[in-house]
Design a protein that fits this description.
alpha+beta; Alpha-D-Glucose-1,6-Bisphosphate, Chain A, domain 4
Length: 174
């Protein structure tokens, strides 16, 4: 698996008179499975059906329906060098190709765009994370910690977990 942070930018933005850290991070990885399998794996994580990314990332859908589609809302908790929580809503959903999420509540606000591209029987996954800190403690932490870099480290850990899980699933079917 190859994984890399393709781009990183951050700056401060004034929101309601307060300076908040803003991020625009792009991460890519190659997952050793076809697009349909990888897309379904992400949908299952977002919908709380599987927990492959635990203990790092967990999703709890709001309501009892675990079907992931445009409009689905989940509460996300990330346990990576600290704990952050936010709510995400699927705003665009193109089967086997694209998930766009809006982070509208919690420690971050912004968007996440996941794209899935076929690549020689594997999948190139790209996440563009555009977010603004939505808590004073995170904004303060951003003065001392490279949150964009930490986000990239987290995403690459998730890519590794995906590959381990999908490899194990594939081997158990043989």
């Amino acid at each position: 698996m190859r994984a890399r942070a393709k781009a990183f930018k951050s700056h401060e933005e004034t929101v309601d008179g307060s300076k908040m850290a803003r991020y625009d991070v792009v991460d890519e990885g190659i997952i050793d499975a076809d697009c349909a399998t990888v897309f379904k794996a992400y949908a299952n994580e977002f919908g709380g059906i599987t927990h492959v990314w635990m203990p790092i990332w967990e999703s709890q859908p709001r309501g009892s329906d675990t079907t992931v589609q445009k409009g689905t809302v989940a509460d996300i908790t990330v346990h990576y060098k600290g704990t952050t929580k936010f709510a995400a809503r699927i705003t665009e959903f193109v089967k086997d190709k694209l998930f766009t999420e809006e982070f509208f509540e919690g420690d971050y606000t912004g968007t996440g765009e996941w794209t899935f591209e076929p690549l020689d029987g594997k999948t190139k996954v790209r996440l563009r994370w555009k977010a603004t800190t939505n808590s004073r403690s995170l904004t303060l932490a951003a003065l001392f910690i490279d949150i964009g870099k930490r986000h990239s480290e987290l995403v690459h850990e998730l890519f590794k977990a995906w590959n381990r899980h999908l490899r194990q699933s594939k081997n158990s079917k043989l």
